[in-house]
Automatic annotation (TrEMBL):
It holds the Pfam family zf-MYND. Residues 16-53 form the MYND-type domain. SUPFAM superfamilies: HIT/MYND zinc finger-like, TPR-like. Transmembrane segments: none annotated. Coiled coil: none annotated. This is MYND-type domain-containing protein. Keywords: Metal-binding, Zinc, Zinc-finger. It comes from Ridgeia piscesae (Tubeworm). InterPro entries: TPR-like_helical_dom_sf, Zinc_finger_MYND_domain, Znf_MYND. GO terms for molecular function: zinc ion binding. The lineage of its organism: Eukaryota, Metazoa, Spiralia, Lophotrochozoa, Annelida.
């Protein structure tokens, strides 16, 4: 029988959003959520409630009486769409908070995602697994390894019962189990799980996709702990290259110069280049991963070429995120490191981006941002 961590105790109508204990404190804004203590209300508010407070009113308000069968079906369809949108929002927020190291705040976001997934898909659906994984990773971050084991065991059981489970979900499951083994100090099994993560992610997205890079990054961290620096270094370089290539594609689209038509007569328009985008969780992942590698390279006193590449990757990231103050702080390091080889291709790219970042106005125009 599937575990339901949100089960309603008999006879209790109002439960705490965070721990499911009887609740007596009401949110005075939405008036549809309740808490057992002010502390839990604060954790939930910081984690997810401030984002979804007004949205919950529509989802939890009593359904109006509708005479028409068509009206009832339309309302049912509308509610289903709202619930699915809420699942996406709360999952993404939970994952973002994990990448930011806010493990306690990630819990309420994951619990909300789990609630809505159960309502929409039922207790045994594979759609519950992403929420279990967020809860598992949050528990690892908080040092609650027994809780993490419970959530990940539930995720594993659901995956085993779903033969058509996607490579994407299997990848994320192996990644979280790998993190659990690493937290326990069982590094060989951690590497085994992370290897499976990379296999499934590569099957789903390719070996050089940003969604696969997380497996390489965590595997590098394990080798780093084992003091196998050569292997760790090669994996950190792989992660840097994946993000470098992805961010450079976005920069190239934003700074592309339109072709000026020549001569007389109609000119065939160039098809617009589609810009790749990052969701909130991917932005947080990029910030966490690239800054961690940058800090490590600084401590290692890495070669000028290695330092130039990671500094330029971080510069591109903050440029894409329109954080030009941070972009300028990293481009300085990239320019300084690139002076060792001023004529190579990377140095030229660094110099060009440095010129575009000279003033907020020119950087804003170059990156398609309204000033």
């Amino acid at each position: 029988m599937a575990l339901n961590p949100l089960a309603n105790p008999k006879g209790v109508k109002r439960l705490c959003e965070l721990c499911q204990k009887p609740a007596f404190i009401e949110c005075l804004d939405c008036r549809v959520t309740y808490y057992c203590t002010k502390e839990h209300q604060g954790i939930d508010y910081r984690g997810i409630h401030k984002k979804i407070c007004s949205l919950l009113i529509h989802l939890r308000a009593p359904a109006p009486f509708l005479n028409s069968g068509e009206d009832r079906q339309n309302r049912k369809d509308e509610m289903l769409l709202r619930q699915k949108q809420m699942i996406d929002l709360t999952r993404t927020t939970g994952q973002k908070l994990l990448f930011e190291g806010k493990h306690e705040q990630a819990v309420p976001a994951a619990m909300q995602a789990l609630k809505f997934a159960i309502d929409v898909y039922g207790l045994s659906s594979i759609e519950l697994v992403p929420s279990y994984l967020i809860l598992g990773e949050a528990s690892i971050g908080l040092g609650h390894l027994s809780h993490a084991e419970e959530y990940l065991s539930q995720a594993q059981w659901t995956v085993l019962k779903t033969p058509e489970c996607s490579h994407d979900i299997q990848s994320r499951l192996h990644r979280n189990v790998g993190l659990l083994y690493a937290a326990k100090g069982d590094y060989p099994e951690s590497l085994n799980q992370l290897g499976n993560d990379i296999y499934h992610s590569s099957e789903a997205f390719g070996t050089d996709d940003i969604r696969t890079s997380g497996g390489y990054f965590h595997m590098a961290n394990v080798f780093f702990r084992l003091n196998k620096m050569k292997t760790a270094d090669s994996l950190y370089k792989k992660v840097t290259t994946i993000w470098f290539t992805f961010l450079e594609r976005i920069i190239n689209v934003r700074t592309r110069t339109p072709v000026v038509p020549k001569g007389v007569g109609p000119v065939a328009e160039e098809p617009p280049m589609k810009e790749e985008v990052l969701d909130e969780a991917q932005e947080a992942e990029a910030i966490q991963v690239l800054n961690a590698i940058y800090d490590m390279r600084e401590q290692q006193r890495a070669t000028a070429q290695v330092m130039a590449k990671i500094a330029y990757a971080v510069t591109m990231l903050y440029t894409v995120l329109h954080d030009f103050s941070r972009a300028n702080s990293f481009i300085y390091t990239a320019v300084k490191a690139s002076k060792a080889n001023p004529e190579d291709e990377l140095s030229k790219k660094i110099a060009e981006l440095a010129r575009m970042l000279q003033t907020p106005y020119t950087s804003g125009i170059a990156m398609g941002m309204k000033i």
